[in-house]
Amino acid sequence: MDFSVLQFPGSNCDQDCIHVLRDVLGHQADYLWHKEESLGNADAIVVPGGFSYGDYLRTGSIAQFSPVMNAVKKFANEGGLVIGICNGFQILCETGLLPGALVRNRSLQFLCEQVYLKVPTQESPFTREIAMEEVIKVPIAHGEGCYFAADETLEKLKANDQILFQYSSADGEITDEANPNGSMLNIAGICNEARNVCGMMPHPERASESILGEKDGLQIFEGMVLHFQGVPISKEEASAAC
Amino acid sequence: MKAKIVITPKKAVLDPQGKTVQAALEQMGYEGVTDVHVGKYLEVDLEGDDAEAWKPKIEEACHKLFSNPVIEDYEFTIE
What we know:
The complex is a heterodimer of chains A (242) and B (79).
Chain A: E1 2-7, H1 14-24, E2 28-33, E3 44-47, H2 67-77, E4 81-85, H3 87-95, E5 101-103, E6 111-118, E7 135-142, E8 146-148, H4 151-159, E9 163-168, E10 187-191, E11 197-200, H5 218-228, H6 235-241
Parallel strand pairs in A: 1-2, 1-3, 3-4, 4-11
Antiparallel strand pairs in A: 5-8, 6-7, 6-9, 9-10, 10-11
Chain B: E1 2-9, H1 16-27, E2 40-45, H2 51-66, E3 72-78
Antiparallel strand pairs in B: 1-2, 1-3
C-alpha cells in the first residue's frame, strides 16, 4: 500500500509518520510537498501534525488553500482514505472535509501528555482493529485541541456513529476530569459521514512501537491497510488480537 | 482605501482568553465588567476607491479565509 504524507511549511510530525508506515508497518510511504497538484499513485493520505504556516490567522486556515489540498478534497470525495492527525485534523476541519473546528484548550495551556481514548465504534477503517469498547493510550501535544461544533452537528455525529475517539479515564469512563482540553462530548477524533476521512488530535504515530512505550496507535494504521486490501471487518479477530 | 475587519468568537464557543482577561480586569479593581471576548482585527489595503465593488470580495474573503464561520463572527467596513 502506498501512503503519502503531506508536508506543509511548519509540519513537524511528517517524519514520525513516514517511519511508522515504512519501518514499523512495512508499507510504501512518501512525502508529498504542499505545492504538488497531484497525489500520484497514493492509496491513502496522511495529513501530519505540526504548525502549518506557523498557525497564522487560525490553525490550519492557510494550509487549506495549498494546491495539494484540492487534490486531497477530490481524493476524499471519491472515497480515498485520509487521516489527519493533530494539525492535520485542524486542516481537515478548515477544509470542510470534517465538520466542526478546533479551538484553544480551555486551560490556555499547550498540553503534552498521555491520554486514554475510548473507541465507541469499530465501524470505520481507522478503528476496525481496535476491540469493541477498548480503551487505548495515545499521547496528545496541542494548544488548540478543544473540539467545537454546533449542537445540530453534534447530534448528526452521534446519530451517524461518527465519533471515533473520546477522551476517557483508564477504565473507559467519559468524564469531565478525563477531558484534557474542553472538547465537546470529550471528542478526540471523528470521521466523515462516508467514513473514509478521519481526524484526531492524539498522535497514533507516537504510540506505534513497544520501544517507545506504547503501540496502541499502530492499530489505526493497520486498520487502514486492511480496509484498503478489502479484508472485511472481523469483530472476533479484533477482540482476539487484544 | 482600507478594509477594516473585526473577528470575534461566537457566543457559544468557549473563550478562555476572554475569561482570563476579565479576571485580570477584576484583579485590577475594575468593577462592572460583565464579559470579555478576545478576537482579531485585520487591515487590508485596497486599490482604487470603489468600496461597493470591493464589498462582495471582502465578504467572501471573510467567510473563506479571515474567519471560520463555525466558531467566529465577523464584521467589516471599507473606507
